[in-house]
Each structure stands twice: as structure tokens, then as C-alpha cells.
Amino acid sequence: MQRKAIFVMVIILLSILFLTGQVVLAGGWAVVTLDELPADVVAKQPITIGFVVRQHGQTPMADLTPVVKAVHVETQKTIQVSAKAKGAVGHYVATLNFPEPGRWRWSIEAFTGNQPMPPLQVGPLEAVTPTKVGVDISWPLLMGLLGLFGTAGSSLVWWYKRAWWAAILVFVALGISGAGLALAAYQPQAAEPAAAASPGLAEIGRDLFMAKGCTTCHAHSAIKERPDIFIGEGPDLTNFPTTAEYLRTWLKEPAAIKPNTQMPNLELKEAEIEALTAFLLEENQAGPAAQSQPQPDHQVVAADTAAASESLFLVRAQGAKGPLVVYQMPGGQEQVRLPAGLLSADGKRYYAAELQQDQTLLRAFEPSSGRLERSFSLAGRWQLSGVSPLGHWLALTRLPNPEETAGWRKAGRWQTDIQIVEAAGGRVTHALTLEGNFEVETISAAGDSLFLIEHRPALKPAHYLVRLYDLAAQKLQPGALRAKTATDEIMTGLAWGGLASTDGRWLLTLYLNTARNVAFIHALDLVNKIPFCIDLPSGQGDLAQLKHYALTMAPDSRTVYATNAALGVIAEISLENYRVVRQVDFPASAPVANPVGAEEIPTNYSIMAEDGQRFYFSNGWDVWGFDISSKQVSGPYLSQSQVRGLGLSHDGRQLYVALAGQLPQMIDLASGQAAISKR
Q: Do 30-125+200-288 and 341-474 agree at the fold level?
């Protein structure tokens, strides 16, 4: 009997574990997206809300019984309502009736988590006043009118009868009439009730950030409330580097920018997109004084002629496609700020594309001075996706509209449209339409070869191929580009930083192989049109540590150094032998915290001295130096500081360090002492 009881208990426990495992395997989390923000909520007046529940933020979930809970902030009174399925799959509705006015906190519990919604301010139910028939007359006015009638009546009596008492009545009635009319004239009017202050656009955007479920995958310093299950797959959006135009396009149709994105199309209304854009860009804006006047998207400060001998410090704090900021050192004054764009490998040309309704404006700048050299427009909406090493050729990828992408997804296909533009005059030399999900890697210096990354499968890519489009023959070459010694290993991973040689031969892309949890360099020989993969030291396969790799190249373009402070590794790579030829170890040092945006863009930097004898690198917080001859590591020079870029003075004696929220620092390399730049 005892054995039978034990057997039953074991079966029950295994069943519980199995069911729990099914929840875990199913994903275990979902995102609730509110149809719209509740408006004009009044106590004791029912309102109906609608929302969608998506597993993993994408797949609508049926057969659920979500529960809506609300708590009064002051009285702690609670209400709880079950929602019912209505409409499309995964859509639910619930009717709420708040019993008393005040501030209410509420949330929606669906699947395995409880998701907070933006707090509601419930107004009082106005008393119902019976409808009055006739004219609303105040008592002083009534007294004045009766006095007038009395004056008229007593005057008639006195006229006909000449009675002394009638004359007295005339004066009494006149007094009553005058007093009444005077009181009516000076009676204070009831004040109109003050209208409630309307929330600003950014405030509405903040509420939408919660209501649309953004808090499940993204953090933001302005929002403290988080769902029970915080996935954190998306970047921290506090001060996130982006532009209003990019945000509008992304929020309207994420797949139009990134076909394989995990971000769903929430079918946001135009007003919601504008509010979210205002909220996400709010902390990036200048102060009230600066906002009073329209600001250009690129700024140039006239340089003092006396400072011509000073060094310029170029910073790309938001990644290789972000804005370019130029500081004058050692003072640290900002001289140039250019919009998000691409810099040619030789550093002499900078290009930016701006969407303008149904056109795209292309502009060419001289990066050091910020001088606008030329601009031209292209019909349609295009994204700048590639620049040849010397900046003579541009590649642009068309941004499809939501209707197109919806049709492609339904048909299980994708299409990529690319234009090649001659940078000198804006002439379109080639227009390509490719069946599949292609990404521009680069263009050859001569403008005769377009190197592409083809993501396969097109809709939910799992691996990629390096493809070559022969622009001279106007033909996509069959098959993938492979080195003679290449294996048949499937190429998969996340592109995480890159480097191009100034002579136009090499394009190096740092990849994180998410299948094997290793880092490698995808080295593309643009002259011989051959790719190579070079494995990097990868420790225990921790992707968070592998993201701290940074690349720098020797002046002769034959040697590359890959640094990773989190692993404590410096790898010397020969581009003649296509392998790591030397590894130097030093005490590993992970950053105290990931810098803002570190999950979305690389925040590690490396810079080579002009003489090629040493270089400096950072893990996003600290800075080290490496002497190539002695193979010695020095530093760290800074500690607990969020680094956003590195530079060197012309004589190589000072190291410039861009810091988040501060003026650039200058480090004297002889003494190792750092001094904060002052204006």
C-alpha cells in the first residue's frame, strides 16, 4: 500500500514538472497591447477597454481569460474584472466601472505575467440638476422689477386721485426698484470651472510606452513600473540615439527597416506615433531656450584662427552609422555636429541621407570642417547603406511601404531594391531589384563590384551568404563567395562592429556566432573578391563578454589587433596568413555596467598611433594602452567613466577620450595623468 502511494505521488510530481516545462517551452511570457488610452474616465460610469495579447510580443494568443485589476492610490479600494475574447484572434475586451474618483493604478494579467498600465485619473460624477423651465432670474433683479411695477401703479393712483399716500408709495417703490436693480448689477457672477490641463505630447507618449507593452522588452529611466516578466531583449531607450524620421518609419512598419526584426507591427495610429516619438526624443532635446528656435540638423562653429595648430577629435559615439561630432582639442569645444551618416574608409568624405516625404535628400560633407560640399535629391524613400572606400560611390536601399511588406510576408518572400549613385554628381548608375533579403556590405573602390550579405531564409533568417553583384556585367554571381580553403560551415551570427582599410582593399566585420558562441572576423578582400573567416579567442563562450571586442589596424593594412578587456585578450591577426599569429593576455576587466545602448550598438573603441608602434583601447568604461614592440599593456588610464570615443593628438603625446555627459578628457601619455578639458 505504501509503495502504491509513493508511486502515485511520483506520477503527480512528474505531471506537474511536465506541465511546468510545457509553459517554459511555450515561451512563458506575453505582451499586452492596449487598443487606445482610456479618456474622460468618470466614476460610476462604465468604460470598455480592448487589448491584444501576443506571445513573445508577436503571435496573438487565443483561449485566455485575462484579468484587469485596479487599485485606488489613496483609499486602496480595488476592482477586478475578467476580460472576454472579442473580434480578431488574441483580442479581448473588459468593462470597468470605477466606484469613486481619484488616481487609480491598474494592470492586466494575461498568460503568465501581470503588466502595469499607465495610471488613470478618474473624475467625479457631476450632480444631475433638474432642467429649469423659463428664465433664471435672481432675487435682486426680481425686487427691482417689482419696484418698477409698484412705481408705475402708485403713480397712476396719485395722478387720478391726488392722494397724499399715493405719492409716498411712488417714492417707496422707486427706492425698492433702485436698490434691487443696483444689487442685480453688482452681483458677482459664478466662475466657470477651470478646465483640466491637457497632457503634453511627450506625456501621452510616456503613457503609450506602457500601454503598448514596450516595457516588456525595453527599459526607460522615465518609467519605473515594469511587468512581472521583463525580457529586456530590446535596447534601453533612455536617450537612445536616433532621429524623429527614423523613429516614425520604425514605429509605423519595423520590418520596412529590418526585415528580420523581433519588433511587431503594432498598427499604431499617426497620433500615437507622433506622441511616442516626442517621448523618446524628449531627453535628447536642448533646453527651453534652445527649443524656442528651430535648430539645423548639422552645426558648424567658426574655428578661431589662433587655434589652427590644435587637434581635431572626431567622435562617433552612437556607432558607425550615427552622428559625427568634431571637438577642438585640447579645449574640448564642439566645432561640428553632423547628422547620422556614413564616413568613407579614408576619412575624407561623409554622407547623410534625409527622408523628405516622397524624396530622399543626399548630402556630402567635409567631415573635419563640417562644410556642405554638395547635395542632391532622389525620388522615393531610400536608406544610405554603403559607401565605397574612397567615397566615390554610394549604395542606397529602398524602404518599402507597409502594404508591400505585408504582401511579401503573406507570400513568404522578400524583395530588395538597391541604387548605386555616383557621389560626385548624384547620377544613378545602377538600379537593382533582387529577390530575397539582401544587405549591402560595401562597394569596391572602382565602383564595379557590389558586395552583399544575403540573409536566409528571407523572412526569419538563420544564416547568411556573402554574395557578389558584378556591376559591370549587371549580374548577381551564382552561389556564395568562398575562400579556397573554406569549409562548408553554415555562416550565422550577429554583425558587431567593423573596420575598413584606408587603401580600399579590406573590409573587416566582427561577428558573434550565436550558434557556437564564438567571435570571428569576416575579412573581405575587395580586390581579389575573396572572403575569409578568422576565429578569435572566445573564452567560455559568454556572448556578453564577446561583445567587448574592438578592432584596430596597423598603418600598413597587413595586421589587425582584436582587443577584449572583458576576456583580458589582445589577438594579433595577420591578413597575409588569415589567422591569429600571437595572443597577449592581461588581467581581465569587465565594465562596471553596460553603457547606455550597449545591447544595440558596440561601445568598445580602439585607435592606432600614426607611427604604428602602439594603440589604445577601451571596454566602454576604462582605457588601456598596448606597446607593439614590447607587447606590454599599460593602464587602465581611466576608471569608472563611460567612454564614448578615443582619439590621439598629432604628436601622439595626448590621448583624447570622449565621455558620456562630460567634456572630452585629455590624458598625457608620458605621465598617465588625465585632465578634464575646460572651455
A: no
State how far the alpha carbon of 480 is from the alpha carbons of 395, 433, 468, 495, in Å. 20, 18, 8, 18
More confident position, 281 or 193:
281
Instruction: Please give the radius of gyration of the chain, using alpha carbons only, rounded to the nearest integer.
Output: 35
pLDDT digits (tens, 9 = 90+) for 132-158: 434 445 566 666 666 666 666 666 666
Residue 159, C-alpha cell as written in the block: 395722478
The better pLDDT of the pair 55, 490 is held by 55
Q: How many CB atoms lie within 10 A of CB 479?
A: 9
C-beta of residue 658 within 8 angstroms of C-beta of residue 664? yes
Asked if pLDDT for residue 295 goes beyond 50, the answer is no
What ranges do the domains of the chain cover?
30-125+200-288, 139-186, 341-474
338-356: b or e for each residue (b if 16 or more CB lie within 10 Å)?
A: bbbbbbbbbeebbbbbbbe
pLDDT digits (tens, 9 = 90+) for 597-637: 444 566 788 999 988 999 999 988 889 999 999 999 998 88
Q: Which three cell numbers stand for residue 520?
A: 570571428
Q: Which residues contact 150 (CB under 8 A, 6 or more apart)?
A: 169, 172, 173, 176, 177
If one compares 284 and 82, the residue with the highest pLDDT of the two is 82
CA gap 323, 208 in Å, rounded: 28
End-to-end CA distance of the chain: give it in Å, rounded: 87
Q: Cα separation of 152 and 166, whole Å?
A: 11
> What is the model's pTM?
0.59
In CATH, the number for domain 341-474 is: 2.40.128
CATH architecture of the domain 30-125+200-288 equals: Sandwich (2.60)
Joined grid coordinates for residue 22 = 510545457
Q: How far is CA 596 from the centre of its chain?
A: 11
DSSP E strands, 272-370: 299-300, 311-315, 324-329, 333-338, 342-343, 350-356, 359-366
Of the listed ranges 23-37, 41-55, 270-284, 328-342, the least confidently predicted one is 23-37
Structure-block grid coordinates of residue 119: 495610471
